[in-house]
Design brief:
With 217 residues, the chain is mainly alpha-helical. It folds into two domains: 58 residues, Arc Repressor Mutant, subunit A (Orthogonal Bundle); 157 residues, Tetracycline Repressor, domain 2, CATH 1.10.357. Helices cover 74% and strands 0% of the residues. It contains twelve helices and no strands.
Length: 217
């Protein structure tokens, strides 16, 4: 897409197409390099725009990735609701929550960066839209969890979904360490033994949280 073609668009649908192109480029770059490594300049170059033109659609790099995080929440919601329809009990629920997250490394990476970076350089409108979207997703998925998880209330289902997001953002970088730690683990098996595997750790911790929530009423 040329810079000239991008500048000529004026209609709302054309502007939306531009936003979607920027988000698609940001997604692709993050999947290849990791969210933290991608700059606003990288995204601008990928869509053949100057940075000053990109910020007409998203005020900052962080706003781009916060919107992408919201997209990932919505994509995850659709898949997890579909799979929960076939869940037969607590074990199935935990499996669905964890496995649908584990299948989405970009989602995990975004959750890792969200509260520490992405929410720190955005407009009030962007922050509001993101939070309202995340709350809506958690409410919908939490209600579905409660319907198939005996003993959990709807509010506890929402808490379990929130815990899944928080744990994913914490455990993912530990399970997928940078190259220097990979090298260390190869040299020091005793240290490597403490590297947390993502799926099993998530399932164990979420199962413990689910078991404990009713006792705190």
């Amino acid at each position: 897409m040329s810079q000239g073609a991008f500048r000529r668009a004026r209609r709302p649908e054309q502007k939306q197409e531009r936003r979607e192109a920027i988000l698609a480029a940001a997604r692709d770059l993050a999947m290849r390099s990791g969210v933290r490594a991608v700059s606003l300049g990288d995204i601008a170059a990928a869509v053949s725009l100057a940075k000053s033109n990109v910020v007409r659609y998203f005020g900052t790099r962080e706003e781009i990735y916060l919107e992408l995080t919201a997209q990932c929440w919505r994509e995850w919601e659709e898949v997890v609701l579909d799979r929960l329809a076939d869940a037969g009990g607590p074990g199935d629920v935990i499996d669905v929550l964890v496995e649908t997250i584990e299948e989405r490394p970009l989602f995990c990476d975004l959750m890792t960066e969200c509260t520490t970076t992405l929410e720190h350089n955005v407009s009030l409108a962007s922050a509001r839209a993101f939070k309202l979207d995340a709350i809506r997703v958690a409410a919908n998925v939490g209600a579905a969890v409660a319907r198939v998880f005996p003993g959990l209330s709807e509010s506890e289902g929402v808490e379990l979904v929130g815990a899944a997001g928080v744990l994913a953002g914490t455990i993912y970088p530990m399970a997928n360490p940078p190259s220097v730690l990979v090298e260390l683990y190869e040299q020091e098996p005793d240290v490597a033994a403490f590297r947390l595997p993502f799926g099993p750790t998530m399932k164990r911790m979420l199962s413990a949280i689910a078991a404990g929530l009713p006792t705190l009423r």
